[in-house]
Amino acid sequence: MADTLPSSFYLSALFVSFLGCILVTDATAAMGLEPGLHKLGDMTVELADNFRLTLKDSDTLAGSAVTMDATIRNFAAFGVLKQLSR
User: Fold this and answer.
1) Contact status, residue 29 vs residue 43, Cβ threshold 8 Å
2) Are 18 and 84 in contact (CB under 8 A)?
3) CB neighbour class for 65 (10 Å; exposed up to 12, middle 13-18, buried from 19)
4) To bridge 66 with a disulfide, which of 15, 51, 81, 84 should be the other Cys (CB 3.0-4.6 Å)?
């Protein structure tokens, strides 16, 4: 899962072979919404520009809203393929 932390990619890369990999997203129903406050079930959550979803007025994670296209861009930008080729 490729949210906004390069470290999550590098940990995953330890288990990936050169035969391939699979990128997934664990996005919640907030995926595709504009940054700001939203209702997610009975919770009020805040969606940041970087797809981070937290409970309103808190640093408590409430999930992710990362899209698959952003996941692919993150994978490329974080240089995981270079790390794998070492």
Assistant:
1) no
2) yes
3) buried
4) 51
Digit-coded pLDDT (tens) for 54-85: 999 999 999 888 888 888 787 777 776 666 55
Which residue in this structure is represented by tokens 């919404």?
Answer: 33
Residues 6+ apart with CB under 8 A from 57: 46
Residue 54 CA to residue 59 CA, distance in Å, equals 6
Question: What are 25-59's pLDDT values in tens digits?
Answer: 778 999 999 999 999 999 999 999 888 899 999 99
> What pLDDT does residue 57 have?
94
Let me know: does 51 contact 43? Beta carbons within 8 Å.
no
Q: In terms of C-beta density within 10 A (0-12 exposed, 13-18 middle, 19 or more buried), how is residue 57 classed?
A: exposed
CB count in 10 Å sphere of residue 66: 22
